Amino acid sequence: MINEKLVSKIFSEIKKAPSVPGPYSDLFGYLRSIEGEDFGYAHDKNKEMRTLLTYAIGLRYNVPELFSVYKKSLLFDAPHYLDPYLLYLELKREPERRFYQPRRNVLKPVVDALQALADDELDELFLSMPPRVGKTSLMIFYMSWLIGRNSENPNLYCSYTDTITKAFYGGVLEILQDKDTYSWHEVFPMAKLVQTNAADETLNIDRRKHYPSLTCRSIDGTINGACDAQDGVIIADDLVSGIEEALSKDRLISKWGKVDNNLIPRGKGKTKYLWIGTRWSVLDPAAVRLNVLSTDEKYAGYRYKVINLPALDENDESNFAYPYGVGFDTLYYQRRRASFERNNDLASWNAQYMGEPIEREGTLFLPADFKYYNGELPEDPDRVFMAIDPAYGGGDFVAGPICYQYDDDLYIADVVYDDNDKTVTLPMIVSAVKRHGIQAIQIEANKSTLGYKDELERLLRDEGIKINIMTKTAPPTTSKVNRIFDKAPDIREHCVFLESGKRSRAYEAFMANIYSFKVFGKNKHDDAPDSMAMLIDMAFRRSDRPVVFKRPF
Question: What is the pTM of this model?
Fold first, then answer.
């Protein structure tokens, strides 16, 4: 019977004197003794104890004794849980040379999802991250854990080229064989590497099997009849070779045919699927597979998850500024984005670095279509005004370009672009009014945004600001796409946007939304181009007042 009172008492002693090693050793010994009786309880409490140990080691007292218990705690969990396995595996390496520990804060959500996949809490996982941040390396470590904890389940790793599959195979083999660097044999002391074949890129753990513990193959290699992953994991890593293939609709369709006919059928039983790579296109294999899962009623209740970790966060800061200089800082990514923009290829930036597949075919605007300025506005504008496409959150964006008009030239000096609710976006608009001295605002009116104008007027009144605010209902006979299409020539000819490097995060997102807008096909968001169409309407709208003229007959 589990003595929970004893466990609670030891935890109390630890919290009173966190740097004293004895209670940790006592608690760990007891938890290890009850693992067979209550596995979940023993490991949950072990994890809780390890959190306290980490804090205690940071106090710099009795470090050798505390670290000894910490290592035992990790090893106790490592065969069953991926996160402690990754930490324990590299303890022999210097901290700055480790793969996982410097990246843990960023990669932990991915590791948790991989754990759920292994524990049969997920059926498929879709993972997108920028190049060179560790996703394939993490898969190498993950595979070494999978084949150690269950060598009987065959696993399959697939990529677009043999070069990548050979590197993956070599990476897994290195972890299994390099005892001076990795502690795989300590985690799985009974596991034996019994067969390797570099030519076939296969290896077996514990016994020789018809379908090996791990097989690595390119998508164009021999898969049918040579590979199987029953109850194991199929990893599809970068099946699209690059932009050239991504731009070819025929090649993408052909690639999906190989995936659907050759790769996916290699799984049966409780096989799990893991899709990794650049989200080039809505027609690439991972995107097509995701569409199948999300739209086919036969997959109702099917458990899948999508993780997209973009290069830059919502504050335009790097998500991958790892310690020891092994990642990429904000300036690096901002420079990469500027380079893509100079090449008129923000679509590739969004696909490779932000995890947003954008179809180039059918896009209405390109970066080369527009005029830009360096942030220095001309003096004495004719007027300053703002067009607002409102929203109340829920995934839709409030889009509001702020225009300094000089005759027919429209300088877009700033924008409000945010998908939060009105308690956030309305104060943003008020701040913009004060900052730019905006003289007029037009808000698109519809049934869901009728109160937006009233609330904005109230907030401006509270600030002592009087301003002309108009609402205009979108024409019921013209679709939003057609409205944007009709105003596109004027947007290209008359609007002058801030150049890259001078823009705020919101301004960059606003421009990306304009560049991604398609006339044909589905737009996830069209708020930015719609607000620009409204702005053109405000700038060049002609009066409908009657004019008295002399009768011509």
Answer: 0.71
